[in-house]
Design brief:
Elements lengths: L17 E5 L5 E5 L8 H10 L1 H25 L1 E7 L14 E7 L2 H5 L7 H4 L27 E8 L13 E10 L2 E16 L12 E8 L4 H11 L1 E6 L12 E4 L2
Antiparallel strand pairs: 1-2, 3-4, 5-8, 6-7, 6-9, 7-8, 7-10
Amino acid sequence: MAGRSTWPKMRFQHPTPVEAQPSKNGHVHVRLRNPDETKPAGASLRGRFGRPLPLIGALLVVLALAGYWSVYSATTHRTPVLVAAHDLQAGTVVRSADLRVAELAGDAGTMAALVPERELDTVLGRELTAPVPQGSPLPRATVASAGTGPAAFTLVVPAMRALGGALNPGDRVTVLATFESGAGARARAVARGLRVLTVGTAPEGLDRASASIPVTVALPDPSLAAGLALANTEGKIDLLREGGRGRTAPIPPASAQGG
């Protein structure tokens, strides 16, 4: 048919790489190279520079897991610490009723600044140098160091004359002394508003009604020590625990005529 080429359609393919090799007799030998043997230069470069990537990725995963584990361990390990059971003001002498135990988690530095449960006995009877709100952990810095407290005096009082031994550190007491003479007896308040620091226990095997216990009180004024010492040796001492409203109420002396 006119206008239509009679040449068969030709399919063009990528030229097959040809490798020319010299021979001994001067003729050139031509060898067709297998396409499978030909590797693109780009693929070789990618293989060369891409091999370290899986190793770097694995290393990053390991580092991430290690960091996560350290944070997880620090935040899940809980330590029992002392917490304020109610609002504690500066100057409060710590009693067992002032504290409760809670388990907290944190880094080593944070936990080291708090008082753990196992050190409860070391803070009882100690004074707070700063307020601690209810529910807050007790910082070590707020507990006064031993030996930095006020002057103190120890009274030896029959347990039944010291609220039956129900006094606690932190209570405030009035010391009443009764002196007897031939003309009768006279009782008066020797000191008021003394803060109880420690309360001892009666020795084993003694009658509770007659046993005496040591009660150590803080002295805001050391000059009170002489009057307390005289009352402790020459008189009979009774301890009055003061309430919140009765601290300023006057306590007049009382006397009884001898018979």
